[in-house]
Amino acid sequence: MSGLMVNFSDLLVAYVAYVIATASPGPANLAIMTTAMHQGRKSGFFLAFGVVCGSLCWAILAALGLSALLAAFGWAFTVIKVVGGLYLLWLAFKAARSAMAPKRVDATPVGAGEKSGSAYFLKGFLIHMTNPKAVFAWVAIISLGLKPDAPSWMSIAVVGGCALLGVVVFGSYALAFSTQTMINLYASFKRSIEGVMAVAFGFAGIKLLTSRL
């Protein structure tokens, strides 16, 4: 029973890390925001779905690759922890710097003139598949959720759960930023939001670097 509780605890930490990583400002989120603002909610949802599918591809590759790597090399987990932890600390630094010197987010059109849902889906998929943040974020997330002795069902739980959370997070961006009210609210509280993100990333990075096998 204690082992099961540890697995669920690791799973929860992985989910929290995924939400923090996906909700933080980045190329994918900015693309969803600007698409929803300029091409409408439907186009924003299509692009968001493309981002989710791109994230799911990285998740599956990371889970399969890391599971095999951890089974063969015990030291690989330490390497993954260091890389993932340092990346989270780097995100914390970026968020803190942005919070201290806030910038206006330019709402420039994304994909202006494209009318098909498949075009927006493909754009979102390619944005996430070519985003270095997505690769390293999944390294950190898999490290937190999958320990070397984790049961096989944990891989499915981490990837599947994060995929559902991705639908909620990215879909919420498309929904929220298709309304003028939320656009104004984000602009008003941008510094506070990024300050909270800096603390959250810093805590997650330190926890990953200092955690035991």
Oligomer: single chain
Rg, rounded, reads 18 Å
Question: Total strand count, please?
Answer: 0
Rough outline: globular
Strand content: under 5%
Sequence stretches where pLDDT stays below 50 over 5 or more residues: 105-113
The tally of domains stands at: 1
Structure class:
mainly alpha
* C-alpha end-to-end distance: 19 Å
The main pleated sheet reads as:
none
Query: What is the arithmetic mean of pLDDT?
Result: 77
Order of helices and strands: HHHHHHHHH
Explain the overall architecture:
The structure is a single chain. The protein has 213 residues and is mostly helical. The protein has one domain. Helix content is 81%, strand content 0%. It has helices at residues 2-23, 27-39, 41-72, 76-100, 117-129, 132-145, 153-176, 180-188, 190-210. Helix 2 packs antiparallel against helix 3, helix 2 packs parallel to helix 7 (153-176) and helix 3 packs antiparallel against helix 7 (153-176). The radius of gyration is 18 Å and the shape is globular. The model is unreliable at 105-113 (pLDDT under 50).
List keywords for this structure.
0% strand, 9 helices, mainly alpha, 213 residues
Helices, strands, pairings?
Layout: H1 2-23, H2 27-39, H3 41-72, H4 76-100, H5 117-129, H6 132-145, H7 153-176, H8 180-188, H9 190-210
Helix pairs in contact: 1-6, 1-7, 2-3, 2-7, 3-5, 3-6, 3-7, 4-6, 4-9
Précis, in short:
The protein is mainly α and 213 residues long.
